[in-house]
Amino acid sequence: MPGPVSEVDVAAIRAEVLFTPDCPHAAQAESLLRRILEEEGVAVAVERIQVDDLDHAAGLGFRGSPTIRLDGLDVAPDPAAEVGLACRRYRQPDGRIAGVPPEEQIREVLRERLASLEPGPGPLARLREVPARAMRAGFVWAARQEGIERLSKRLPVTRGLVRRFVAGEDLASTLVALRRLRDDGLGTTVDVLGESVDSEVAATAAADAYLSLLDALQREGLDGNVSLKLTQMGLDIDRSFCQRNVARIVDRAFETDAFVRVDMEDHTRTDATLAIARELHGRHGNVGVVIQSYLRRSEADVETLITERIRVRLCKGAYNEPASVAFPTKPEVDESYVHLMERLLAEGTFPGIATHDERIIERARDFTARESIGRDRYEFQMLYGVRRDLQQALVAEGLAVRVYVPFGSEWYPYFMRRLAERPANLLFVLRSLARERRR
Ligand SMILES: Cc1cc2nc3c(=O)[nH]c(=O)nc-3n(C[C@H](O)[C@H](O)[C@H](O)COP(=O)(O)OP(=O)(O)OC[C@H]3O[C@@H](n4cnc5c(N)ncnc54)[C@H](O)[C@@H]3O)c2cc1C
User: Fold this and answer.
1) Which of 9, 225, 323, 395 could connect to 189 by a Cys-Cys bridge, CB 3.0–4.6 Å?
2) pTM of the predicted model, to two decimals?
3) Could you tell which of 188, 290, 316, 327 is best to mutate to test the pocket of ligand 1, judged by most ligand atoms within 8 Å of the CB?
4) Contact, 232 vs 202, CB < 8 A?
């Protein structure tokens, strides 16, 4: 792994907000840009440039206030706009007009700039050379190390980022987040964080937490949909104990008109997970499973689940798997995803298309339009805190989106998998650590 990240890597990126003195949206543009830079792990200061008169505007090629530029490029260029001091208006993905450019457009330009950085000797360049698989392997390994877990939980830097991916440490704060998501038109599925428990007492307590959750969801009139992991329910202790433990949840879910999704863990648990989910589905028909497109076996599993009319959430897969069981490259995983997605959309039972990959979402749109598959026959699913702009844009189009909302104190392994999915997340952590060390 590379050493601590210095800020030299991205000093090449210039981030500017240009504005007129009376602009009502200048501060908003600046704080939006700051937040995006922070979330993308780019530690540069935002330069504020006040444009006072027409000559100044002409010299800068300034076409209205506020304007956000990255490396001198307008993030939302409007060739029709004249050089001058007018107020700018920006159309958002949902059609609304706002005083600042759309968040995702700024992100995209930033990512393009980052991708175009010449590989040099700096740590960022070295990090880019680390293959995604190797990076995932590192994080998934770290997710199992108790020493690293204890250390990370103490670091203030981790907390900020954890808050982005985890709705709360307790049920009360999570209910607030769930209400907000519901008001935004999003469906939810709630995960009480925890996995790999090694005592029956802990597994029983985890199931009890789900019973309280189901009661609270019903009481509050919130979406009755939960996701759980079998290793949290005692799978590694005793399989039939685990099944009985989850059956309690499935029965309570039935009473409260809720649905239970059994998450998929690493490939050594696939058989047991599918078998238990299948048996539990047989109780009341309110249980679904997850299929990972990176597994070579998934095509056969999908066909069986289609025949059994069991609901499938399709994801790419978040664990570090050997090439003997999983496709080793991203193009193969993506190709498998599209194939399985089309099979599920065509013949599956209300599949959950769980991805933030815009190209794949576009393929789903094309396929459902071509095959006249109604919007009520499937849903998109995304993770809490990931691509909120995309979640909103799909909802604005009238498509169903469900957000996976984890909560609880056992966030560490979940959090590490989220870091593993994206180098920018890792960069953010490394940079913050480097900053903390300098304090
Ligand atoms: C609802 C839901 C449930 C899931 N359940 C399971 C499960 O049961 N078992 C399992 O193995 N995996 C599960 N996953 C995780 C999944 O397998 C992937 O690891 C994860 O979704 C990233 O893949 P992607 O499809 O978004 O595509 P990618 O190609 O990895 O990402 C596409 C784009 O999405 C954005 N993005 C993706 N991940 C992140 C992130 N962590 N932070 C910031 N941006 C990100 C980036 O813009 C990226 O460019 C689930 C995912 C979702 C959405």
Assistant:
1) 225
2) 0.73
3) 316
4) no
